[in-house]
Design brief:
The structure is a single chain. By secondary structure, the protein is mainly beta. Helix content is about 10%, strand content about 45%.
Length: about 200
């Protein structure tokens, strides 16, 4: 089972790889990616697509709001059965509120439980810290046909899980060589986490 994600993150003001005396290490590129996709305050639209052999592909859509030292608020936008579900992550606690239920009280969720039936845990989605959980190394260079930038030269970074209970066993990502931001990622889910889904 493979999940393929396309991340287009070209921000003005990011350091160019050419500025560095040498190409950053895989761990340094992973840290830079984490800082890019998790700034101190942001709003984003995200999706998680799950592909399982012999089953229909499923996609979850959500809007995410984050502020450092405050927490994460997420609202599901798709599929229709999940639309309107709201999640609040504060410190290490994650709460879910379903406005369609008759309850006015949110439910506290376990950080280790599956997030809406995916291989990702609630904690993986609400508070991702890849540099704590993965070791990265440069594994070469390649070119990709990017939908926005055309033929794009990339550094290939291989990130491997440091533990068995992480949702991704490994991730191979292409970083746009001139700006050191992620462009394309091929994620191999960890079979030890399949029991979550």
């Amino acid at each position: 089972m493979k999940l393929t994600g396309l991340i287009v993150l070209i921000f003005a003001g990011l350091p160019l790889c050419g500025v560095f005396a040498q190409v950053p290490s895989g761990d340094e590129l992973l840290r830079m990616t984490e800082e890019t996709i998790n700034p101190s305050i942001y709003r984003s639209q995200m999706s998680i697509t799950t592909v399982k052999p012999g089953q229909k592909e499923s996609t979850l859509g959500m809007e995410v709001y984050y502020k450092e030292d405050t927490g994460t608020f997420m609202e599901m936008t798709s599929p229709a059965r999940s639309r309107g579900l709201r999640f609040l992550e504060k410190e290490t606690n994650l709460y879910m509120y379903n406005p369609k239920s008759n309850s006015r009280r949110p439910l506290r969720l376990s950080p280790e439980q599956s997030f809406q039936g995916t291989v990702f845990s609630n904690n993986d989605v609400s508070d991702p810290k890849y540099t704590d959980d993965y070791s990265a190394s440069l594994s070469g260079e390649d070119s990709f046909n990017h939908p926005d930038t055309g033929k794009t030269d990339c550094l290939i970074v291989l990130a491997e899980a440091n533990g068995k209970r992480l949702p991704m066993e490994r991730s191979e990502s292409g970083f746009i060589k001139t700006v050191c931001v992620p462009s394309v990622s091929i994620i191999t889910p960890n079979p030890d986490c399949s029991s979550r889904a």
